[in-house]
């Protein structure tokens, strides 16, 4: 991997490297309880989302070897990352999040995922990308399926959320299965 992460542009979103000036925009977005719950986290158990939290978020993305800010109409709306890149086995995992609840369900996450996946397969030469998602997060599962991901299994009772066990769905995508649009 090179230190230079390319800017990736689609019809509605742009993926770019995080920069210090993103702190204010990320802080303004805050942390939506409904979105946080879809990650399997209890928003009441998390520390308050303050400026330090926004700075840490931006710093983590800026130091990550393959993480982008998702922009829509010139505004920061979320992040997408390729984690645990393994050059030997040519695999990685995908993580994506739209932080603005008003922008969920508009195809922006799917478009951002497709841009990152195209980079993974066409530029990095990866063969397989995996993702795990809470079984109740149907919107995310449908988005991943639009990109070509297939459900490969279910990890039963893998998340303890508000006193109850929930399942994770394991999904995988091979380079030859990728659906660009």
Structural write-up:
- The chain is of the alpha+beta class and 181 residues long.
- It is built from 5 helices and 8 strands, in the order E-E-H-H-H-E-E-E-H-E-H-E-E.
- An 8-stranded mixed sheet has the order 1-2-3-4-5-6-8-7, sandwiched between helices.
- It starts with 7 loop residues before the first strand and ends in a 7-residue tail after the last strand.
- Please state the average pLDDT score: 94
User: Percentage of helical residues?
Assistant: 25-40%
Number of helices: 5
Q: Per DSSP, what share of the residues sits in E-state strands of 2 or more residues?
A: 25-35%
Distance, first to last CA: 26 Å
Secondary-structure element string: EEHHHEEEHEHEE
Would you summarize the structure shown here?
The protein has five helices and eight strands, in the order E-E-H-H-H-E-E-E-H-E-H-E-E. The protein has 181 residues and is an alpha+beta fold.
Secondary structure layout:
Blueprint: E1 8-9, E2 13-16, H1 23-29, H2 33-38, H3 51-63, E3 67-72, E4 75-86, E5 91-98, H4 108-123, E6 128-134, H5 138-147, E7 150-161, E8 164-174
Parallel strand pairs: 5-6
Antiparallel strand pairs: 1-2, 2-3, 3-4, 4-5, 6-8, 7-8
């Amino acid at each position: 991997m090179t230190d230079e992460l390319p800017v990736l542009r689609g019809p509605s979103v742009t993926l770019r490297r995080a920069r210090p000036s993103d702190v204010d925009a990320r802080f303004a977005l805050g942390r939506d309880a409904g979105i946080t719950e879809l990650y399997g986290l209890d928003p009441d158990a998390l520390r308050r989302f303050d400026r330090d939290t926004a700075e840490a978020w931006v710093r983590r993305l800026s130091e990550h070897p393959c993480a982008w800010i998702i922009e829509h109409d010139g505004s920061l709306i979320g992040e997408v990352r390729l984690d645990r890149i393994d050059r030997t086995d040519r695999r990685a995992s995908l993580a994506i999040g739209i932080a603005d609840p008003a922008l969920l369900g508009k195809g922006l996450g799917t478009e951002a995922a497709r841009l990152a996946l195209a980079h993974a397969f066409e530029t990095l030469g990866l063969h397989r990308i995996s993702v795990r998602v809470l079984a109740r997060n149907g919107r995310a599962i449908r988005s991943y399926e639009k990109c070509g991901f297939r459900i490969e299994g279910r990890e039963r009772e893998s998340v303890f959320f508000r006193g109850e066990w929930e399942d994770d769905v394991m999904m995988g995508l091979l380079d030859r299965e990728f659906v660009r649009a």
